[in-house]
Amino acid sequence: MTKRILVVCEKPSVARRIAKALDDNGAPESFSLSGVPYHASQRGKTTLIVVPVLGQMFSISKKGGKWVYPAFEFEWVPSYIVDKKMARTKYFMEVIQELSQGVEGFVSACDHDMEGSLIAYMVLHHVCGETTKMAKRMKYSTLTDRDINRAWDELSDSLDFPLIEAGRSRHEVDWLFGINLTRALTLAVKNTTGFYKVISVGRVQGPTLNFIKKRDVKIQSFVPTPFWIISADIRLGRKKFTLDHESSRLQNETRATEIIKQCKGKEGDLRKLEIDRIKIPTHPPFSLGDLQREAYKNFHYSPQTTLRAAERLYLRALISYPRTSSQRIPPSIDLRWILNGLNEQTRYVEFSSRLLGKYFLSPLQGKKDDPAHPAIYPTGKKPGRMKTVDGRVYDLICRRFMASLEDPAVREVTRATINVNGHIFFLKGSRLVERGWVLVYEPFFRAKGVVLPALKIGQKIQIRTIESPRRFTRPPQRLNSGSLLTLMERKGLGTKVTRSDIISTMFKRGYISGREIRLTDLGFTVVDSLERIIPEILSVEMTRKLEDNIEEIRAGETNAMAVVEEAIRVLEPALLKFKQNEASIGTEITKTIIRPTIKGKTLGVCPVCKRGEIRIIVSKTTGKRFAGCTNHFKGGCDTSYPLPQKGTIQAVGRNCTVCGALLIRVIRYYKRPWDLCINFDCPSKRKRS
Fold first, then answer.
1. In which band, very low, low, confident or very high, does the pLDDT at 594 lie, cut at 50, 70 and 90?
2. What's the DSSP call for residue 387?
3. Is the pTM above the cut of 0.85?
4. Does the active-site annotation cover 321?
5. C-alpha 165: how far from its chain's center?
6. Are 11 and 141 in a shared domain?
7. 577 and 625 co-located in one domain
8. One of 121, 296, 301, 321 is an active-site residue; which one?
9. Which of 450, 477, 526, 529 is surrounded by the fewest CB atoms within 10 Å?
């Protein structure tokens, strides 16, 4: 009799690929029930029923229906109950439950991390009927046929319960912080002013916003101080070079002027010549954070954009699992197999064939490791057509992988010491004398330094021009998505998976803005209120401690209940203090919400009464917008204008030269912005018609 095993996968595309790889003939039968796809693979005398889920199909819900805080009572329920967008998961649960009837075994084939392990556990436990104790675990890092078959042959006898408990605890701790802080902030506004707007902050978001706030305050309070630098221009052959004075910064302008007078038009004497060779080691393969930073540096891709591109490449079996913090590739990875695959791709053949000619291959191993997955590497499978973003990220990964197998580069650094009328100047240059790994990684390698011609001691050098420009000290640099990601990683905020989502969420909620990140008024007020009243919620140490506790669950060193209780212990007194200051917090936040709304609706000063403002108003009767003077409500001015009903309307900041009314700009999707006079009867419009 044929044995039947149910294999649970994380996504439909993954289920399809696994079913094909595990089928003896590579041609599994495919079915659809209630819109849910699943596959039947024949492997020897065993039939594998391979079925996908739709991400996390169970969510946390508060017990009791009132929208209040504190909220510490919760339960896990099907996601479609708490989120209408997850309605389709109900059909997946029903189909999985039906398919689980009469099977002899269960296998979790979801991603091998906290989230993937928890997803499979919840389905097996709640949908398939307490089957977790008899389930096995399939662990793979790529979706190639080779890796999938190896993972099947090496099935673990049980689920990874410590990883499951850690994943569940992280969800519960994040939910406790998220729902309580969100309700506290939202109700502070609503109970104080009656204005309703959901204002949300999470466990990691708060400390991250606080970092941005501190950086903003440092920049705004920075007082620049002047200094002077001295640089001299010379010519060697036909090329121009710059000499730097031994004092890189002079605090006294008088001293700088004296040096200029003493050196102007003089001849220098090359007294000393130092030439050193420095090895530049290659880089280890990418972790997810490394990849996101490099993609931002080279392409200005946000961390989330890079992660999504990497996930698409993974689902096409082009790279290994991207959600990893490892910079190491274990000996079990067949490096020559991968290089042979890359050798089939024209743009990599020069580098891969060079590496294949080596007797011994060993990648540079980084310091960071991940017990679940190795560093990101290409599988060697030849890609077809790709989106531009996917192609660029794929190229980064392939070149970084090959660069990690290459020899160090060698840079020759030259420093010439030149005496000009008793003053010491330096001429500096450098060049690569051995390209090593740079040969592979050249598109993403920024060479620094100037290549100097041959020099010799005693050589006379004529100063052509010399100057002492005034400079000012600069404030700290603003954070961008890449440097913020680095900061979060260094401080232990969030995980390799959640950091990019947290940054994206802060942009969406209007707390930060710009490529060079600035805190908005709303973001500043929210984080400032929390810092004044409950600073412990913004503590990096508290957040990191909870993160460490979750890792201890993963390692089997503590239990999940203790970590959740610790989160409640931190939140309970903080929320009590918040409630006592609810009115003042609500008033401040409301001001920052309303201020930009009014500003965005104001078009300018009324040209008729000169006292009111012309604002965009929506008629309660017709629902159409028009512009009217604010003095109308005081009975002082009846000026009003019809407005175009489509597009975004902005103030231009000028008045019409024909009739004196305000000019407005109309912006419509995929059309050139259009400036026009707001006055419908303006003579300029009749002239055009």
1. low
2. -
3. no
4. yes
5. 26
6. yes
7. no
8. 321
9. 477
